[in-house]
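**Folding the chain**
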Amino acid sequence: MPAQSIGNTLIDIFVEAGIKRIYGVPGDYNLRFLELLESDGRIEFIGTCNELNACYAADGDARISGFAVVTVTYGVGDLGPVRS
């Protein structure tokens, strides 16, 4: 059996935790993970205009469902001063 990637392992963990959506901003360093999400099909990726919007969307989702996930690439503006 071939080794499972970190991305596939994360997807399995998120599905087991009940995650239905992942919010974020596509970027250089998370595109492969987003391709895995798309090919897997069990979790929907919801793209946002910036990291702040992704955090707010995930915060709202977590308040309803108890747990949420954000994926962004590192660089200018990443995650900023968001506090819950």
Summary: Residues 51-65 form the longest helix (15 residues). Residues 20-71 form one domain. The helical segments are 6-17, 31-40, 51-65. Strands lie at 21-24, 44-47, 69-71.
